[in-house]
Design goal:
Helices cover 75% and strands 0% of the residues. It contains 13 helices and no strands. The longest helix has 25 residues, at 36-60. The radius of gyration is 19 Å and the shape is flat.
Length: 272
């Protein structure tokens, strides 16, 4: 059983469940308990989905993992590739089937589209640079859409989903700049257009996210504590400036900025 726990990377799956719970709270606020059945369903869906994605990743990248992650089940010889593929398919299909328990067309559609995108990413898009970056960013944003859909309307989290998408693209490009020397079998954006133009594009996305955070302020969507999003905005603007000289620092700071933005949205739900 340990090899399957390692294959699924349970820590990532648990973090994903926590993420969708936070997304649901951002949409429903203190009334989140009224939707407990759908919350359980969404937790199972996200858990199975992430497990499936990690299993498929190990199946696809088994050759790369011989050097990069020799301790994983396939390169270590503890699991056959076909077993990882079967586990991935079981988890992906299971996540879609379980999503039908919400009896909500929006939820089901989000899960199906996400499953298609994840498989497409691992099979083909990961090697295609910017398209792969954009796919991962879309999947990140879709988690917030799912969290809102299970408690009402997916559009309730549309702004935060778009913000997450934008800054995720910037972070993915920064990671590709950082990894240029070690990337194998991929034609990343920095390889295709050069480091400085790629950094400039990442900068655009890092700035676009904070710009979008102004909308909830103008529309008074959240309470006054939402203004703490300024901390996240400053972190993303730092990333925009830093990506040219230190892409590693930029992508690490972007991760911190995402956490700060999440906290701001959560606090914004609380009104005095």
């Amino acid at each position: 059983m340990n090899k399957y726990l390692q294959l699924f990377r349970m820590g990532n799956a648990v973090m994903g469940v926590m993420g969708v719970m936070v997304a649901s709270f951002m949409a429903a606020g203190l009334d989140i308990g009224d939707h407990w059945k759908n919350l359980i369903v969404s937790a199972v869906v996200v858990f199975m989905f992430i497990c499936g994605g990690n299993a498929l990743n190990d199946y696809i990248d088994h050759e790369i993992d011989r050097t990069a992650h020799p301790e994983r089940p396939i390169p270590s010889g503890r699991m056959e590739r076909k077993s990882a593929l079967h586990a991935a398919l079981l988890m992906f299909v299971g996540s879609v089937v379980v999503s039908f328990l919400t009896f909500d067309a929006e939820c089901i559609a989000i899960v199906i589209i996400a499953a298609v995108l994840m498989v497409a990413y691992e099979v083909a898009l990961k090697q295609r640079g910017f398209v792969g970056n954009l796919t991962i960013a879309v999947l990140t944003g879709m988690m917030f859409l799912l969290g809102a859909a299970v408690v009402g309307d997916f559009t309730d989290n549309l702004i935060v989903a778009l913000m997450a998408l934008l800054v995720s693209v910037g972070r993915e490009i920064a990671k590709d700049i950082e990894d240029m020397g070690s990337d194998e079998g991929r034609i990343t954006l920095p390889m295709r257009i050069g480091v400085r133009p790629a950094a400039a594009l990442a900068c655009v996305f890092f700035v676009a996210g904070p710009a979008l955070s102004i909308l909830p302020m103008a529309q008074q969507t959240y309470g006054p504590l939402y203004y703490t999003v300024a901390v996240a905005d400053l972190l993303f603007l730092f990333c925009a400036a830093k990506v040219f000289s230190d892409p590693h620092k930029a992508q690490k700071t972007a991760k911190l900025g995402m956490v700060a933005a999440l906290v701001a949205f959560i606090l914004g739900v609380i009104r005095f």
